[in-house]
Prior knowledge:
With 463 residues, the chain is α/β, with parallel strands linked by helices. It contains 17 helices and 19 strands. The chain folds into two domains: 1-26 and 370-463, Orthogonal Bundle (Arc Repressor Mutant, subunit A), CATH 1.10.10.920; 29-329, tm_1862 like domain (pyruvate-formate lyase- activating enzyme, Alpha-Beta Horseshoe), CATH 3.80.30.
Amino acid sequence: MTSQPDLIFDPQLIRRFDINGPRYTSYPTADRFVEAFDASALKDWLAKRAVGGVSRPLSLYFHIPFCNTICYYCACNKIITKDHGRSAKYLNYLDKEIQMQADALGGTRQVTQLHLGGGTPTFLSHEEMHQLMASVRKHFNLVPNGEYSIEVDPRKVDFDTVEMLANLGFNRMSVGVQDFAEDVQIATNRVQSVEETKLVMDAARATGFKSISMDLIYGLPKQNVISFNRTLEQVLELSPDRISLYSYAHLPGLFKPQRRIIPIDLPSADAKLQILQLAIRRLTEAGYVYIGMDHFAKPEDELTIAQRQGRLHRNFQGYSTQAECDLLAFGVSAIGKIGPVYSQNVKTLDEYYDALDRDELPVLRGVELTADDLLRRSIIQALMCHFELSIESIEIAHLIKFGEYFASELDDLRAMEEAGLVKIDDEWISVLPAGRLLVRGIAMVFDRYLRSDRERARYSRVI
Ligand code: SF4
């Protein structure tokens, strides 16, 4: 029943239904995690993986928070420094965390997926990268055909570094670009030439990387349709296998670096929408398939194939072909998932070092999913990954009567149905082509936490 997604760009519908909301790399979203879930809870769940003798394969995530310079649009958890003494210290603590989690772990240590994110993972020197991967391989068994990916900042990376990464087993790469226009790069403090980006991508192809993904951002200062069209031409020439096209959200109150962006330089809401429309047209005309949310991929890329075959999933790295993995996360602010629980590490280096010095896992918060969370997670996952939901399979898997359980959600979907975003019948909820860019808003209807926030707000207004 899964069909290739087709996309209709309707500016009026987008203006009417586009709302800020979660990206649903997890459900419940991280802001709903609670501090009652602590290090000992994580330890228990790590051990429980072995119960019954069966355990899922593992996905590993490592957060490397250091960056050489600041990009003004940044909303990540990072530390700007040129001092490699800081990464050397961090790696020693990371090694301790890896050992502690591995010691607590029940079940198989078979790893099918690994991701280094940041910050800038390529901040690490060759020796540090070797040290980290040696520590990983000491405690885990990385299967030969796994997906091993790394985020790369092309401004600091040469052929030898890419070759070193390939020799260490990395076979997927995500390259940060955002925009090639010079005035946009100056306004965001990230000056990066097409040539240095091409060098890294050519090196990745020459050394056997299987998939290269590129990040772009629309809505940046000084951006306009003409300049972004030129960027898209350059991107298409570089021909990445996947493209992420994120919307820039200007929230200087939340993210300090964004205060360096001059608001008058930002494109208007209309201009931003035109840039998005242009990008979607250029990418789809060039043959890229819209996967969902902000992601495009070539038809032959494994993400597109997984979506066609109904195997696509969504996790903290975005869309993924790795379904039933438990995710162990290491480093500051990293988020992991084991069976029905999520846990997140502390966010600052000091807290991270303090916890590990006390021989404690550096957990900040987490959540153990209820039956209702699990049910809603599978609905949100199906809508985000496949644009459709089989009502019968949800009823069978979760032993509910869909129409009764979700009566108010179905009511709320009616306006979207009337506008042509979704189609609802007795068997399926389908996101129609005009609703696909708005799938986050459709998924939000099933988010119990947002619903109760709204209820509370309504209640307090009445009072
Ligand atoms: S956008 Fe990436 S490279 Fe730039 S400061 Fe943020 S984490 Fe570092």
